[in-house]
Amino acid sequence: MSYVAVENLVKKYGDITAVDHLSFTVSKGEIFGLLGPNGAGKSTTLNIITTLTDFDKGKVTVDGLDIREHKAEIKRLIGMVPQDIAIYDHLNALENVKFFASLYGYGKSDLTRNAMEALEFVGLSDKIKVKPKQMSGGMRRRLNIACGIAHKPKLIVLDEPTVGVDAQSREHILNSIRLLRDRGATVIYTSHYMQEVEQICDSIAIIDKGQLIACGTETELVSMVTDVQTVFIKTKIPINFEKETFEKKIKLMPGVKGISEEDSVIKLDISVEQNNIGHIIQEFINFGLPIISIKSELPSLDTLFLTLTGRELR
Ligand SMILES: Nc1ncnc2c1ncn2[C@@H]1O[C@H](COP(=O)(O)OP(=O)(O)OP(=O)(O)O)[C@@H](O)[C@H]1O
After folding, report:
1. Residue 23 to residues 4, 30, 105, 260, 279: CA-CA distances in angstroms?
2. Using one digit for the tens of pLDDT, what is the confidence trace for 126-172?
3. Residues 78-114 pLDDT 10s
4. Ligand 1, closest atom to CA 40?
5. Domain locations along the chain
6. Distance from residue 269's CA to the centre of ligand 1 (Å)
7. Residue 44: CB within 6 Å of ligand 1?
């Protein structure tokens, strides 16, 4: 079921078309990644969905509501975590989160409870009295996220939430985003870090110059540039191994395009769409081949971007 629907969206700034007939849908309960280089139109699209920016043409609905007609209701459904950190330096962490949550009309007791929960969620529950100036960049980013989620929004929109953070905060942020999804929220997330998008997004839209280049799950996107992935399975060949029978059996399995063996590493070419790896592994076990390691080589989204646009992503 689609929770957010963007249809033929156009936004111009003078001569610049920041969003150019963009259409995509976000399913309820998924992490949706909006991926594109600098200036692709990601922030503009998010600002439109969150009703912060008006647009020239098209239609956007959130939870079935037209955002132009139901601005106030939609604002309550959404938690926005902006790219530029929006927190007050003179307020401590708890006061900051309470302030932002109060904008959504929480009563005093709910407010403190929800603010504490949000701070705990981002790993800052021991920093409630600390002011942003005494925090690291990563902690400030996490506080920024807490401010956007304390009112328990159904749709959480994060604009490049990991820019300039250390590896530990980055992992914390990514895990938090997954947890928000697992608790039932729908998440839209922008990035120009390919690896992050691959890591956490259920579906991905690649945009460039305000236009949709491709949209789908990672597998769907990858299958646009190739229909074969290579899997290397390291094993230990037993003395009585019936290699010919094994290879014949594997070759007959749906989706298998090729098999070869070298130095106890079995190389399989398998269909991206018809990924049969579970059954293949079962055959390894049936033939007494232990699985020591599995490595899969799939073209990266960097390659995909390059193939589709003729340009490097960054
Ligand atoms: N307020 C504005 N006034 C004029 N031009 C703007 C404004 N906001 C964005 N733009 C232009 O619109 C285009 C899309 O910008 P946008 O910030 O949406 O891209 P982005 O994909 O979010 O980029 P980044 O990754 O750098 O944040 C760019 O050409 C940008 O210069």
Report:
1. 11, 17, 33, 43, 37
2. 999 999 999 988 899 999 999 999 988 999 999 988 887 888 888 88
3. 999 988 888 999 999 999 999 998 887 666 678 888 8
4. 21
5. 2-222, 228-298
6. 42
7. yes
Minimal-distance CA residue to ligand 1 atom 18? 41
Look up the CATH architecture of domain 2-222: 3-Layer(aba) Sandwich (3.40)
Determine if ligand 1 sits within 6 Å of the CB of residue 41: yes
Question: What is the CATH code for 228-298?
Answer: 3.30.70.100
Q: What is the pTM of this model?
A: 0.81
ipTM of the complex: 0.96
Residue nearest to atom 25 of ligand 1 (CA): 38
Q: Is the pLDDT of residue 208 over 80?
A: yes
